[in-house]
Amino acid sequence: MQHAVGSPLPPPHQLGHGPHTDWAAGAPRASSVPPPGFSGAGPVPPAPPAPPVPPAPPAQVPAPQQPPAAPPPPVVPPPAPDASGHVTLPPGGPVGVPMVPPATTAPDPSATTLAVLLIGPAGAGKTSVAKYWADHRRAPTAHISLDDVREWVRSGFADPQTGWNDHSEAQYRLARRTCGFAARNFLANGISCVLDDAVFPDRPVVGLGGWKRHVGPGLLPVVLLPGLDIVLERNAERSGNRRLTDEEVARIHGRMAGWYGSGLPIIDNSQLDVPATARVLDEVLARAIASPPNW
């Protein structure tokens, strides 16, 4: 079959062939199969970029395990008040030497907590002066009499008037120790004490040394030593087992004279009544507080 006169017609327009397509005989022809997703409306848009992949989170290192915390202590409610009215007292301890701050005036012994030991023979007026002095002080004060404590023993009381022996010696020591305990308890609670005893200078370990052990180094000893005639007169006014024979009174008075030269303060109350002796005792104690005796 022959064509009409003229150049041959180009092949029909096919997809992918434009005016500048190489029509050489050996040029390859594009496939007539449209790509996937082509609708024929226009060029195929490029595929959207893939979303970025987030980086993997860092590996979690497990924290070191801590030991379990100790449980809090249980809450203990405060004890209920004692319905019996019991009051806890400070424990009694040895009495120290009274410390007085420097002052321009002498210390007032009537307002200071003190432990005083009145020493003297029977009939010296120890008990009477001690009671009066304790009654008229500004500070609370207790009087502790050795003879009163000795007489707490009723059945089996060892009376020295019937003869000094091991039983009477043991009861005297027990009474002194009991008085010392009582004084320490009073003083620990702010109450002064005045004790009275017939302490002999020729028995320092049993007498003054024993009181110092029982009460403490702050004990202030003072000797009441009137004349022998005054002592005999006052002893004659006594009754019961506290009245001694004249011979015994004279012997005790002679031994008490050994306190002269001992360094302890001595009050001769031969011409002094009880109130006057108590005033002198205050003066002596004021000096002892300012400069405690070495005994």
Furnish the topology, listing elements before pairings.
Layout: E1 115-119, H1 126-135, E2 141-145, H2 146-150, H3 166-188, E3 192-197, H4 208-215, E4 220-224, H5 228-236, H6 246-256, E5 266-267, H7 274-290
Parallel strand pairs: 1-3, 1-4, 2-3, 4-5
- Which sheet architecture does the biggest sheet show? 5 strands, parallel
Unreliable stretches? 1-7, 15-31
Helix content: 25-40%
What is the oligomer described by this structure?
single chain
CATH topology title of the domain at 124-290: Rossmann fold
Overall mean pLDDT: 77
Shape: elongated
- Report the CATH architecture of the domain at 124-290: 3-Layer(aba) Sandwich
Number of strands: 5
Number of helices: 7
CATH first level of the domain at 124-290: Alpha Beta
Give the ordered list of helices and strands. EHEHHEHEHHEH
Radius of gyration: 57 Å
The largest sheet has its strands arranged as: 2-3-1-4-5
Percent of residues in β-strands: 5-15%
**Which secondary-structure class do the elements indicate?**
alpha/beta
| N- to C-terminal distance | 165 Å
